[in-house]
Structure formats: structure tokens, C-alpha cells
Amino acid sequence: MSIDVGEYVAQISEAHGIKGATRRPDGTVVFAAYRGGEYELCTPDNRLTETDGDITYPQWLEGREALVAHRDVGGTEAYDLVEVDPETGSVTPILDDEFQNQNPQQNPVDSNQLAFLSTRDRSIDLYTIDVEAGDVTKHSETDDPVWAYAWAPDGDAIVYQSGSGHETALRLVDPEAMTDEVLLDEPDSEQSLAMNNRHSGRDAWSENGIVFTTNHETGYRELAIADVSGEYDLHFVNEQDKYNPQWTPDGDIVFDESRHGDWQIRRLHEGDAETVESTGYHQYKEATEDGVYYINHSPTEVGDLKRDGEPVVVESPVEFPTTSPEHVTYESADGEEIAARLYTPDREPIGAIVYIHGGPPAQAYNNLTPPTQTLVQAGFEVLAPDYRGSIGYGRDFRTANMGDLGGGDVDDIVAGADYLRERGHSHVGVFGGSYGGYLTLMAVSTTDAFDTGTSAVGIVNWETAVENSRGYLGDLLRMLMGGTPEEVPELYEERSPITHVDEIDVPLLVIQGGNDPRVPQSEAEQLVSSLDERGIPHEYVLFEDEGHGVVKTENKAEYLTRMISVCQSTFET
Asked: Which of 8, 101, 298, 573 has its CA 20 to 30 A from that of 462?
């Protein structure tokens, strides 16, 4: 049964998932839910907080009988760490400054000591703070950013992951002795702790050792357990990429296994793995004595808190139609096989769209993506490819676009358009956000494969992007580009959409957040200014109160409405 597109946009724009959850000792669930335009901490019975900014990712603090959470004002990602009274909802700052402070984890034996990650010194580093005294101490000595960490069970050491997702290592910190030494650094590979959003690395260390993933031996991320000497053994090897391993209280390991857009939660017990959740993509996984809690995103779940496959909190019931994808593959120009999700409407399609995920080290997850679902309901067939550089297909595929951004990955997107035309579509559009927004701009400016494009928060000029993005992200971009603008100037110019603006001859929609710290507003302004000068038809939508993405209900509705309008008007001509 068809649905009015305007009505559908209104419904899906109001669907907001949970951003983090925890439990009080009495079993009461506390979660971050969208209330009145911002995220606040809630219980199933009431709203706890009411303050400026988004309050998200709560954790219970043993011994302090309070919650610690993140606070972000305006989507800038300059997180404060705050302590929240679980009874009154009063908010007391722990760290309230201009830096990005995130991922607090309590010392297992000292309730007043929190470790956390912060940008207070050039990049993301590991720190501790005495909550009562306010004293902050830096512990990581590496030049690489710190992405995840875990306390030793006795609180005497911290293991952390250093590096920007490529050739990452594990290091060991002694907070008292103020030492930081390499624990595990295999060549040409990645050693990774759980990257569980703002809880990264939690529960990686127990009396059984340090659980992590490594692709050193097979080229795929396999489960491994190390001791404090750095010796390790592989466990449950099957040449499938695995992510986010954590210990359970009874000594099992829960982890995610990538299966073509589905990140299956699996539990390893005495060498055998059972599946806890088979569909969708999830966040904030936490293993407790009464089960594995996680927030699940699937075509029918916008971000529900679940335990061992069963709903605990359904904040935004999906009461509107959604479409689950079919898994397909196609060949790129060089013969590389590209896996993709294909979303087909329940009536004859009026056209086709290629959706490009962000990252690039990410996937076209099998979740409820509002632009994709809205396009399908409007009558478009949507292809969501895992282009080279995507995760889930081994190290060789993930690194295939390093030093070649905007090259082979664009070929994969163009081949996706060819695949759709072979299915009988005469018109094909393209849209994407973040790195997907960048590839969208490259696709419409350097190829003639597409009839329209929508780019959200996409990089326009690599040289200014690495200069203006916050420190650690600029370092990551330089690494992905294979050098600095001074070292590979021709590549920076050739692979920047701003260089090819005069080749854009299709309708283009540009979306930007005014507070975006990753792809600053200045990137979009360069593009729009150049489009204006050349008289190229386009629409520009700046959301002053958004960051790196579109979150607020009214903004999502405008974004989706504009995108559908551009596609429909293009395909009707």
C-alpha cells in the first residue's frame, strides 16, 4: 500500500533512537532519548535531565551512586563530561571546557578516578581525573591518537589502542609509574580493541587476559587473547572480519561478526559461537550478568535497547512502512567484486539512486537510513554498495583506496550506476553523507554516470579539509591521502571536487551543518560560491544548529523533502 511521501517524511523524521544506556543497581534502565529537540537522560517512567545540549552515553559510577554522561552543545562534538544525580537529574560538570572529552571509564578499585580520552593536547590522548580534586593527568606518550582503552581488573594498568585505524597497536600504561610501553605491534596489520562508540575498549580486560582483534595472520580480523607480556593466541578463526570483542562476567566473549551489512552479535563459549542478534547494526554493547545489552538499528528498529535479542526500551516504534534490502554483487571496472544492498519498492520504480555510505572505513549497514527508506517509499530503487575501502571484507579490500581516495572507489560507484541501468533504469541519481558526500561530488563532477546528486557534509577541497578539520582528523585524512599537500600536491588537486566544479551539469543539492567540526562549513561555502559563479543549478541548505549530520526533527524533514523534490523533478524531465 502506497503512502503519501509528505506524511512519510513527517513520520520518519520524528523517529529518534536511543544514544546510550546503562542500569542503576536496582535494575532501573537509564537511557538517552530525544526530547524537545535535544537528547536527555530518561528512565522508562520519567525524564531525568533538562539542560542545554545533548546529554548522552550514560554510565553508572559505582561508589559515587551517580551517572557520568557526555554533554554536547550544538553538535560541535566538544563533549563535556558531567555527573548526573539519578534521583533529581541535577547535572554537575566534571570537565567543562573547549576540548573534546569522551569515553570515561571508572577505575575498578578507585571510585573517584576516571580515565577518559581528550583533545586537550594536539590529538586524542588518554588521561585520568580525580573527580573530587579535579586533577587531570595525561598518560599516553604515542604520537598517534588513542581510540579505545580498558582498565586492568586491579586498576593498576590500562591497555589502549593507538593509531588512526591503520597499522594500529596496543600499548600498556602504568598510571602510578607514569610509563607507557608497546604491548603488541604486529607489522602491516591492525590490533584493535572494541570500538563501541563512546564506550570504546570497555570490558576488554579481565582475569582471562586482554581480548582484541588482529588481522596479522589471516588478513581478516580474528579474535585474540593476550597476556601482559604481549603473547597472544587466536580464537575462533573463520576468516570473517570481527569487531568489538568484550568479556562477559562469566568469561565468555561477545563480539560482532560482519555479514554483508548485518553485524551479528555472537557469544563465544568454550570454542563455540552462538548468535545473539542476526539482523542490523548495533551500538553501545554491554555484557552483564543477566545478558548482553545493546542498541539495535535495523530496517524495523530505529535504535531500540535490547537484551539478548529481546526489546527492553522501544523509544520510537517503527509504525511506518520500511523495506529490507536484498544482498547483491556486481563487478567494478577492474573486475573487483562489489557487495551491495539493493532496496526495491513494492511498485514499478520511477528511477534509481546509488547511496554512498560515509567513512570510508564503514559499511552500508542494514539499518533504518531515513534518506534510503524515504526514497524507496517515493518509488525509487536504491543501491547501497560497499565500495573499496569499506570494512567487513578483509584488510586488502579495506586498504584498497588508501592513497587513491576518489579513484577506484568512484569507479565502484559508477559501476553501481551501470548495474542499475542494466536493470532497466534510464535515470540514476546519487547521494551520500560525509565521505559519501565527497564521493557524490566526485561522481557528478568527474563522470557522466548520474543525473542528479545530493551531498551532505562532504569534503570539497582536500587541502583546506586537512588544514581546517580538528587535529586528529586532519592527521587521519593525510594518512588516507598518502601524504601531505606538499608531498603529493597533484593528488590533492586532482581528487578535490572544487577542481572539477565546472564539469557539474546536473541538479545538485548541498547540505551542511553550521557547527560541523569534521567537515567545516567553509568546505560547502567554497563549493557553493564556485557553483554560483558558474551559474550551475543547485540548492544549498545550511542548518545552523547541526553538526556533522542532520539530527533534529524539523531539519531532517527539510533535508528529506528537499532531496525527494530534487530527485523527482530531475526524473520527471
From this structure: 101
